Amino acid sequence: MKINIPWPEWLTLLCVCFFLFLSQAKGQVSMATLSGEVLDTQSAAIPGAKLILTSRDTGLMRTTIASGDGFFEFAAVNPGNYKLEIEAPGFQTEVRTLVLAVNQVLRLDVTLEVGSQTRQVVVKGVPTALRTTNATLGEVIDPTLTRMLPLDGRHILDLAILAPTAVPNMDMGVQDGNQNPLYWRPGQGTEFTAAGDRANANYYLLDGATDTDPTFNTLTLSPAVDAVREFKVQTGSYSAEFGSGGGAQV
Predict the structure, then answer these.
(1) Three-class HEC string of 106-129
(2) What is the number of alpha carbons within 13 Å of residue 148 lying toward its C-beta?
(3) What is the model's pLDDT at position 115?
């Protein structure tokens, strides 16, 4: 006898929310985060300050309001060139230009001067920001390198060896066409080792989703060089969202 058990609607909604959460969590890996405090010249917080983050590449705008202690955050920001405008009643408006890299967590504290809002302070040059939010070690391979450097074979992973402690693979940790014909896989002849670990300990993600072959621990899908804006090679002290491999996180 066949028994039909009704599927509760709340369980369907729960499953949908769970998968949406997972997709957003994976996307955080490749996104950048911008945060900081809005202060006056006496280092006191300016609550309620309005911040507008505008992409200079696409024109997309995001707005947020500083909290009671002057803190603000823009999470899940696509890497690229941005303009940040900060304004508050009784203070001069300030404009910052900045570049956010893949997986970057940038802390930017802004000091506003007392004055009329009709005056605007524009900061065109921003010094290189120090990474103070985590102890991650690695290197961002930016668009200048992905588009301008000639690559023999047009394999994007050839650029990974530009990161500190990363060197071409010289061991038998990865089985590919150059080392074992039984495991020949087209386009998988480029691997590297990082921080003294083996090449099969690396972990690859593409736009936040897993791009690592579970059998060979190699790059599953190698995108065309022209399709890659930039990527990051982390070689140590990974944050909590990583951990699927003991070598480099790409």
Answers:
(1) EECCEECCECCCCCEEEECCCCCC
(2) 5
(3) 80
